[in-house]
Amino acid sequence: MSAYFSEKYKSLTPYTPGEQPKDTVYVKLNTNESPYPPSDRAIAAAAEAAGKLNLYPDPECFALTSKLAEILGVDREEVLLTNGSDEILNFAFMAYCDESHPAVFPDITYGFYKVFAQINNIPYETVPLKDDFSIDVTDYIGINKTVFIANPNAPTGLALTRDEIEQIVKSNPDNVVVIDEAYIDFGGESAVPLIKKYDNLLVTQTFSKSRSMAGARLGFGVGCKELIRDLNTIKYSTNPYNINMMTMAAGLGMLEDEDVTRARCAEIRETRAYTLCELRRLGFEGADSETNFVFVRHPKLDGSTYYAKLRENGILVRHFDTERLREYNRITIGTKEQMEKFIQVTEKILEEAL
Prior knowledge:
Layout: E1 27-28, H1 40-49, H2 62-72, E2 79-82, H3 84-96, E3 103-106, H4 112-119, E4 124-127, E5 146-150, H5 162-170, E6 177-180, E7 201-206, E8 219-223, H6 225-236, H7 245-255, H8 258-281, E9 293-296, H9 303-312, E10 315-316, E11 318-319, E12 329-332, H10 336-353
Parallel strand pairs: 1-10, 3-4, 3-5, 5-6, 6-7
Antiparallel strand pairs: 2-8, 7-8, 9-12, 11-12
């Protein structure tokens, strides 16, 4: 870093994104992207919008917000579109956390939470997951901090029920509870209906996973009108034109093709069941997942060795080299053909190693 870099950021540890290879063609199962492209309608809408890129996009995202609110069953003023769900999560740290309202989140979860806390100079606490990697709801009851929970959680794939989420929200009336539902379309119960009952609940989601738009960067938050007004204050104080015109158009196209999204989610769930069944047949251990990935380990094969061997054979997965996770690998669910190849390569690795 340069001699000019601010002291307040010199100890910052940035988020490490999943590998995006540029030199070799891999079966890419490492960043939880959809294996399917956006719908034809979404692609056509984005292409048409490209002809208007000389103009600024609508800062209110009126048409997209209106359609999304209709699908979610909420009012338009209860939704805010952002540049990926990372942006609205950062807005939440900025708006609802300070010295008097520290953040709290699980010790094993989405790695960006810690970065958001650090870059915004917010005190935070992490709560250990249980031995089975599940969240103990009682750890968050009446904790009196701003709560951030990914549900389903990553990289574990485990989910809390809506009733469990409600317990946490209800017991912390003086703090905002943020439920990050990036993977909710693959399983679990969304907490969105609870925003009508609790004014301290913010639910975030993304178009990156189930709606095949990771490259477009589109996310959103859902909460009571007062919370959304708070977050709009942050948005209009940083980047009012945060959603580009092509992304906005593609997002609307995807929402008009909800049947495509639902069909693909069902296919991914079916392929996930196949993959987990095959891995267990080969001796792998891992809980059932409510996401578009599985999180597994083999009792006789080192996690980092398995990751490296897969990579040598043209398959990328995600390995986390931390104490509790290093024996595990997170494997994104691709197409059925991709997962069949993944299983074949895994069988070969096990034959050579055991």
